[in-house]
């Protein structure tokens, strides 16, 4: 199973709930990449070389890191792919400049005796995302998060526990969000179209409150 949706759609809120309730392995590609670099695995060393040069980590390396992670005992009951594939290029092998039906990700999973059996699409209107994301503030040392509308601190701009000032992440501005959403609609939405043809996509109304989204996810996964 993998989770799909634009930034701020609630994937990060729902993934730990799904992971715990269904005893699944949560494979967040960003976290796995950092862990591989830190552990200095062969793939991690190659990834670090690319990163040090300011280059993007290749799809082959990311697939390799996912492949390694899925062999762990904790992933034998199933897994959630979080952050991959973000593009159709990552879902399919690329020969020259054309897409062909041989699937890089699917081939790897087939060798492991598993497959993507469900895609959770966290669908939400861009205008709602802007309200959600631009209102987010965090306490940098603890990671506590607040929202000016949905979960405001007791004192504006101040952490409830320490009294220290809150900050807004650079990614949580309207300008950055616009750029990220443009990239999502152009690059990532076609992945949903690709998996829709396999009849494994479940569209969730991500604008609902988190508990209602959780209930919808449970219905999908129990059907």
TrEMBL record:
InterPro entries linked to this entry: Adenyl_kin_sub, Adenylat/UMP-CMP_kin, Adenylat_kinase_CS, Adenylate_kinase_lid-dom, P-loop_NTPase
Group of enzyme by EC: transferase
Classification via PROSITE patterns: ADENYLATE_KINASE
Gene Ontology MF term list: AMP kinase activity; ATP binding
Transmembrane region(s): none
Pfam families listed in its UniProt record: ADK, ADK_lid
EC id: 2.7.4.3
CDD domains assigned: ADK
Keywords, ordered alphabetically: Kinase, Nucleotide-binding, Transferase
Domain Adenylate kinase active site lid span(s) in chain numbering: 136-171
Catalytic activity entry: AMP + ATP = 2 ADP
Organism superkingdom: Eukaryota
Family from the record: Belongs to the adenylate kinase family.
Quaternary structure (record): Monomer.
Function recorded in the entry: Catalyzes the reversible transfer of the terminal phosphate group between ATP and AMP. Plays an important role in cellular energy homeostasis and in adenine nucleotide metabolism.
PANTHER family in UniProt: NUCLEOTIDE KINASE (PTHR23359)
NCBIfam families: adk, PRK00279.1-3
The protein, known as: adenylate kinase
């Amino acid at each position: 199973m993998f989770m799909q949706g634009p930034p701020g759609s609630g994937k990060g809120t729902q993934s730990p709930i799904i992971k715990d309730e269904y005893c699944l392995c949560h494979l967040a590609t960003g976290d796995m990449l950092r862990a591989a670099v830190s552990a200095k695995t062969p793939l991690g060393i190659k990834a670090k070389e690319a990163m040090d040069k300011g280059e993007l980590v290749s799809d082959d390396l990311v697939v390799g890191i996912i492949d390694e992670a899925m062999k762990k005992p904790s992933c034998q009951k199933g897994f959630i792919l979080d952050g991959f594939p973000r593009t159709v290029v990552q879902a399919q092998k690329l020969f020259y400049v054309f897409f062909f039906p041989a699937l890089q990700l699917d081939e790897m999973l087939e060798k492991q005796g598993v497959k993507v059996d469900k895609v959770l699409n966290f669908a939400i209107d861009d205008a709602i995302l802007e309200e959600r994301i631009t209102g987010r503030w965090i306490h940098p040392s603890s990671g506590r998060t607040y929202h000016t509308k949905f979960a405001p601190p007791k004192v504006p701009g101040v952490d409830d526990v320490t009294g220290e000032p809150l900050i807004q992440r650079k990614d949580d501005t309207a300008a950055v969000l616009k750029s990220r959403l443009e990239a999502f609609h152009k690059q990532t939405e076609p992945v949903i179209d690709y998996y829709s043809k396999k009849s494994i996509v479940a569209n969730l109304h991500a604008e609902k409150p988190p508990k209602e989204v959780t209930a919808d996810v449970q219905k999908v996964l129990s059907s």
